[in-house]
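Memo to structure team: turn this sequence into structure tokens by end of day. - J.P.
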Amino acid sequence: MTSSTSAGFCDTNILAYAYDDTQPAKHEVARQLVDRLGDTRVGVASIQVLQELFVTLTRKLRPGLSHDQARLIVSDVARNWRILQPGVSDVLDAIDNAARWRLSFWDAMLLTAANRLGASVLWSEDLNDRQSCGLVTVRNPFAR
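Reply from structure team:
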């Protein structure tokens, strides 16, 4: 993991595992990471992540959380983390970065946001562990 002073960007899946106890091993690792990033105020994310988190918590988890439970979680992340509200320039940069980094637009949007927020790490299990894009390195907290 990174030092407590480095900004860490969490992909939706990591935040969702922190609240999903149906996979205990991933839940524990994600919960510790999310708590550390929140407690030290170095957690960063984007509006895209908040939107995806709400949908994941209410529609993809089995059983899903209630609307009110999921709203409270999203609100807590938004209050305790720095959140990028992307603008047109971020979208255009992500389009260019998708081609440069050979990623989907949505993955490039996450990495563009992480770079914009000054994160050194993007925590995700969906991208290649230790892949670097700009100044951000992807890390899978579940990788051994």
